Amino acid sequence: MIHEVGAQEKITYGRNDRFKGGPVGGGRFWRDDDGRPTAKIGGPEEWRPSGMLVVHVGDTFTVGGQTWKVTEIGEEETSKAYLLCIRLS
């Protein structure tokens, strides 16, 4: 799916096929040693060799030529954990 700049997406556990060049999915959500909400997300071939990124609020990631900024990580350490991101470019 192609998103307009400013579009928002939610990433939860599992696979999210709404990202152009995806899928992108949540693999783990927790609070790091500094108490910051943290997420490990899995993604497309372009993220190899690991295929996973660890992100915090304010971090950016690129998938399918689109750049996204993490704006919120919520309910970490629960089955309802999620990450909100907004498309920057």
UniProtKB/TrEMBL annotation:
<feature type="compositionally biased region" description="Basic and acidic residues">
    <location>
        <begin position="29"/>
        <end position="45"/>
    </location>
</feature>
<dbReference type="InterPro" id="IPR045642">
    <property type="entry name" value="DUF6406"/>
</dbReference>
<feature type="region of interest" description="Disordered">
    <location>
        <begin position="24"/>
        <end position="45"/>
    </location>
</feature>
<protein>
    <recommendedName>
        <fullName>ATP-binding protein</fullName>
    </recommendedName>
</protein>
<dbReference type="Pfam" id="PF19944">
    <property type="entry name" value="DUF6406"/>
</dbReference>
